[in-house]
Amino acid sequence: MGLDMMVERNTSDQEEREEEEEEKAAKNRYTKGVKHLLEIGISSVPKDYILPPQDRPRVTDKDLEHGSNFCLPVVDMARLRSLSAADRIQALEAVDKACKEYGFFQVVNHGMNEEGMRRMMAAGRRFFEQGFEERKKWMTSDIRGKVRYGTSFNQINDTVFCWRDFLKLNCQPLQEMLPLCPSSPKDLRDEVVSYVEEIQVLFLEIMAVVLEALGVRKEEALMEEFEEGSHMLIVNYFPPCPNPDLTLGMPPHSDYGFLTLLLQDDVAGLQVYHRDRWFTINPLFNSIVVNIGDHLEIFSNGRYKSVLHRVLVNSTKPRMSIASLHSLPFSSTVRPAAALIDDAGRGRLYKDTDFAAFLNYISSHDANRKSFLETRKLTPNGQRG
Ligand SMILES: O=C(O)CCC(=O)C(=O)O
User: Fold this and answer.
1) From ligand 1's centre to the CA of 270, what distance in Å?
2) Does ligand 1 lie within 6 Å of residue 255's CB atom?
3) Of 22, 143, 241, 291, which is least packed with CB atoms within 10 Å of its CB?
């Protein structure tokens, strides 16, 4: 080999090594979260956050600010509680319609303490507003951790990163999680306890209503399982983004549990996929957004479907949301309800599943869209689809 060729080859090896080093350093920066990227002074989104053109949102900051004309069905819990048996049937039909047509509804007069909700949101916000040195104490990529500060959607497998940081608290049992929950800001633990206790009561009430709407007898044993059921509280923080047209706060995904109860602040960002289009959900003051998760799709044998949703970011305002994901206990099996399997008509459409299968799946796959649920489907005669 001539001297010139050797020099050229050494130079390109060196360049490759430098590129690899730079890529590693960048990934290391990304795992610290998007708030950290802003803190170190980035002024445009790094290339790993840029979605292919077909997946980018086509909504501007202005559209988000003006709000959309789309409204989710609203369920008034106070009214539902006070109705006569005959009127209740009608109200349950409306819940059934919302679950079938949208997979989402909004709950008002839910009975949660309004001031407590505000304080929980404020304490969560102060957690993210602290310096990185404080936040990073809870940073881990262990998806089984009871408390986890992290970023993006599924940071181990994401091919494109998302503009979101989060604090995930595995709240069942609450007493085991609490000593591990961040103690700064000082009031966070107290606010988490109050919020978790109240939202759990609301979940049980809404779950009972949904079972009634589905036409499944509200068996005591099942309700007891929900009382002991899994409860993941996810505090989401979406900082302002320099290029909101190129990326997303969260990609299109469905939630894994039975129901998710979502509290959002007053900044729009949540979008729901409905009739082949994305619709923005205007934040409705003091309401809770409820959506069907994959486990309820399985339990209902496909009568109710989990629905894709995603989150947009904007260039000026941070946005926060607090999602409560509820399901059966981690050790339980989720399967179609016997009452909803009709041997002569609709056979069993889903395989049994459990959390272990889900966690194994997300540790090795891109879990966006409804990819996990797809692996649980059977053809109508009981074979894998
Ligand atoms: O921030 C939102 O509005 C939605 C959050 C969400 O989809 C989630 O946490 O799974």
Assistant:
1) 7
2) yes
3) 22
Task: Mark residue 254 as left, alpha or beta (left: phi above 0; alpha: psi -120 to 50; beta: remaining).
Answer: beta
Q: According to the model, what pLDDT value does residue 381 have? A: 52
Asked, for residue 329, whether it belongs to a domain, the answer is yes
For residue 322, how far is its CA from the centre of ligand 1 (angstroms)?
A: 7
pLDDT of residue 183: 96
User: Alpha carbon 25 to chain centroid distance?
Assistant: 28
Atom of ligand 1 nearest to the CA of 238: 1
First to last CA, the chain: 57
Distance between alpha carbon 190 and the CA centroid of its chain, in Å? Answer: 23
> Is 334:356 a contact under the CB 8 Å cutoff?
no
How many domains would you assign to the chain? 1
Q: Please, what sign has the CA dihedral across residues 196, 201, 206, 212?
A: positive
Q: Is the peptide bond before 185 cis (omega within 30 degrees of 0)?
A: yes
Print the domain residue range for 76. 24-374
Chain-centre distance of CA 69, in angstroms?
Answer: 24
Q: Taking the model in full, what pTM does it have?
A: 0.92
Q: How far is the CA of 228 from the centre of ligand 1 (A)?
A: 24
pLDDT at 384: 46
CATH number at residue 309: 2.60.120.330
The ligand 1 atom nearest the CA atom of 281: 3
Averaged pLDDT in 10-residue chunks for the chain of 385 residues:
70 81 78 94 95 93 87 94 89 96 97 97 98 94 90 87 97 96 97 98 96 86 93 98 97 95 97 95 95 96 96 97 96 92 83 85 75 83 48
Q: CA–CA separation, 138 vs 140, rounded Å?
A: 6
Helix H or strand E encompassing 75: strand 74-76
Distance from C-alpha of 171 to C-alpha of 327, rounded to nearest angstrom:
12
Q: Are strands 309-311 and 270-274 parallel, antiparallel or unpaired?
A: antiparallel
Domain membership flag for residue 178: yes
User: Residue 272: which of 98, 27, 102 has the closest Cα?
Assistant: 102
Q: Is the CB of 234 under 6 A from ligand 1?
A: yes
